Amino acid sequence: MLKYTNIPIRVYTFSFLLPILFMGFIFSFFQAYPAGVSTVMKLDLDHQYIHFYSYLYDAIKGKDALLYNWYAGLGSNNIGNIAYYTSSPFLFIILLWDHYYLSESVLVLILLKVGLMGLSMAFFIKTKGINLSGSEVVFFSSFYALMSYTAVYFHNVMWLDILIWLPVLVILTERLVHNGFMSLFLIVLFVVFISNFYMAYMLGGFIFIYFLTEVIFKQKNKSREAKTRVGLKFALATIIAAGMAAFLLIPAAIQLSAAEISQPHFEKTINTEVLYVFLKLLSGVYDSVLEGSPQVYIGSFIWFLLPVFFLSKQISKIEKVRWSTLAVVLYVSMLIPHLDYIWHGFASPNSLLYRQSFILSFILLYMCIKAYENIKTFDYRYFFVFYLIANVIVVLCYFNFDEFTTTHLVINLCALALYLIFLLTKLRKPSWSVIRLTCIILFTLTELIFNTGSIYYQMTKDIGGLLKETYTEYRDYRKVIHKVNQHDDAFFRAKTRMENTLNDGIHMNYSSLNYFSSMVNHDLSRSLEALGLSANKAIYSQYGATLFTESLLAVKYDVGPESISRPGYEKVWEEDGLVIHENQYVLPLGFVTDSGLQDIHIFETDNLFQVQNNLLSFFAGYESEVFQRVASFNREIKNAVVHENGEIIQRNDDNEPVRINYSFNIDEHKQVFINLDTSVLKDTQIRINQLLISEYPINKNHSILKLGTFDQGTIKVEWVVDKDEFEITREQFYAANPETYEEVMAAIE
Question: CA-CA distances (angstroms) from residue 124 to 115, 193, 317?
Fold first, then answer.
């Protein structure tokens, strides 16, 4: 049942402001602009969100269409991106700044959401009727707002909305069960659905489980009819909320149905070693943002308070069984890959694993809060036992895990000692309220700043970050692209040599061959892959494009800081330090052809060059072989043995990479291309004369790779692979005479 307690407005104020101040301090300390030269842009925030925010900014300002985005690669329905990336009710924040300060407006957006998480938790504690002082409410609310999940995943801005609404929905679920109040539950659920349908699915799954436990454990004396009425109200509210959000959910679902869903993989990736599970409950621990184990840290107080929850006689057995069941369900669902697959919407994540772990953090935090509320009657001598056990675990972690450094050891041991002193004074010296308040302030400052700062620092070392000067480049390119649009009012696509992300075109207002989104159309991606471009589940890009594919797909301009020498392109003018080259053979967006095009089956061959030869011949109207296979090549493999007809490569010395050396001759001045099909998806390089040409495969895709333009002679290519065992199923080297290339392109034009 809900028991309201009166909390002064200043408690809500501090619960909101303190997490903002702590997170803001961390951002400033690590040089986020305007305090330094860096930004908070990391991973998907840099590669996706910021660009979709940029487009939404321009669309709301009336500069672009809201529902269709021509700058998203070859063009894309924008509803799916709105539903997945930009539909948060808090996104109005970005409109308050000039476009150049978009990265700073996102920083403010993150801070606002972190503050609202603290405010939401304070509301939860107050509405649950938990008997805590104002400073204690602020303390636990701050730890909820800045738990490790927030520190590791803050750059997935859309996820933070769900963390705001989680405590609120738990309270409203209880109100619906006990009082029959459905309206607020329905409204908040609607907001959750439109904030981000993906994370709403996870939160909705937990709320359903929580609803069942509320009915089972708290309504056991009610009649079957009463329980049925409550169940019908819950179902009705859910259906109405989903119906209200249908304007966004249905178009997004249709678009998502055309995208490629991750294939399920059920390998167990979580480290189940008991000591490692304990490690993730310690302050400042970071393993990996991409492939790390669940982020469940909520504060060092867990070592004292979680045992109290189970041992305290003041907490009912029903309460213990219920919350323990919830915790076990969440943890087991991360241990068992099939259940984890269900939690992630029946799609296995390729990275950023265990995205539902914030729910487990919430459950553990509530258990600690409940234990703390009932601590006054607890035997203080147990705390010495808890303290000793926790210290042993901390020391064992120090000697067993490299990521747990001396700094981690000292901070965690100090935190445990301070918590012991604090709890002992609360039980033995209740009059020492000033000392306890001082301890609370010290705990909050020291532990939260250390945990958040340590994770931020280690994550930046792991995945890097973006400098503010990149957004200065975006601004400069936007200006030049705008002038190109004024000069040429026909539809065209372009490419730039900035190449920060695959969504740069969205940010700089030009159509391109690059796009990265969970909403990428699968059939389009497959078609581009068959044409030799780099493409996979959520990505397609200009890597692998030739003059023909660029011309076919209306790539008219190349914009960069210096002049280039490329077949088919001519310099047309310079603007603000950038040079614009024009493709002389670009084809229009649409053109008429005959039905013979249907006889060219691009998916029925694994020879990407032959596909282009067939298309070139068809469009030119005569048989041509622009891409000519290199007659023969030599292959020498170092630091490996070869099995099964030369396809299986097994490394000898693990300390050195496998080096595969190719050599072949060309008889005249030609462009040279390579295409390899291999089981290796990363950690490989293509070199010519020790000079790095490219990482390969590109974006985990075996696209065409241009090696360069060479005169008559012998070409030596080295492929460096850092993998113990891999397979090679295709090795293709092709050459093209630039003059023949341009003759055929001119005939097509």
Answer: 14, 21, 22
